[in-house]
Amino acid sequence: MNSSTGSEIPVKYIIAFALLVAFVFVFAVFFIESRGVGLYSAVYFTTSALFDAVGVSGGSMVSAAIPVYSRAFPSFIVILFMLGIIKIAVIGFVLAGIVDLITNIRLRERFVFFRIRKLKNGILVCGFNSLSEDLCQILKAKDMPFIVIEKNDSRAEAAELLNYNVITGDFGDDAVLKEAAISQAKCVIMASEDDFENLLGVVAAHYLNRKVKIITRARDEDSVSKMQRANATMCVIPEVLAGLEMGNKILQKVR
């Protein structure tokens, strides 16, 4: 789920809308000049003709304005034919844009948003990598609710493919943590490979929720004291733990 709240409108949607408005305007002017109707009626009839699947409305209006036996009528038949082609092209272009827009809305993000809002006492996993991926598998196996926050798009997509609740954004950003419902979280795990990122995350998380437990990863032992001063509940150095675990296994084999 992308944490950005706004995005620029693609140029192709603007072009499609401009073509639609231009089409309605040009032929509304035609009906005003040929029939002497008001602007409202002209726009109404033109819009009706535009979305008339069989083109009956447009044809009947033009034939009413131009008598069938008039010399100008054949010319307008050609015009109607061209209008039909233009209509198909414009509507097709607009519909293609609408379908593409609906696709880009990413409906899955909306479902994730509602699931997050309902989540109580969840765990925020900040940073998605090999370490946090293993952690997420454990949390999922134990049926413990959690949310992954990752700013890297490719890593966030990898987490989404595993059907995790994912927010794409910087966990050091207050707005992102609020979107992840940190006020309702039970625990926050800072799992980034960058100590400075984790430190910023600890500060932001504690500021937004004084009661939440904060477990953070540290690669450098010098970072541990800084994170503790920033109110981290626990600091973990995975490399040290892995070394101790490996040492214990070696000792067990030796014995």
Automatic annotation (TrEMBL):
Keywords: Membrane, Transmembrane, Transmembrane helix. PANTHER family: POTASSIUM CHANNEL PROTEIN 2-RELATED-RELATED, POTASSIUM CHANNEL PROTEIN YUGO-RELATED. The keyword Transmembrane helix applies. The keyword Protease does not apply. Residues 120-238 form the RCK N-terminal domain. Pfam families: TrkA_N. Signal peptide: none annotated. One of its GO terms (biological process) is potassium ion transport. This is TrkA-N domain protein. The chain crosses the membrane at residues 13-32, 44-70, 76-102.
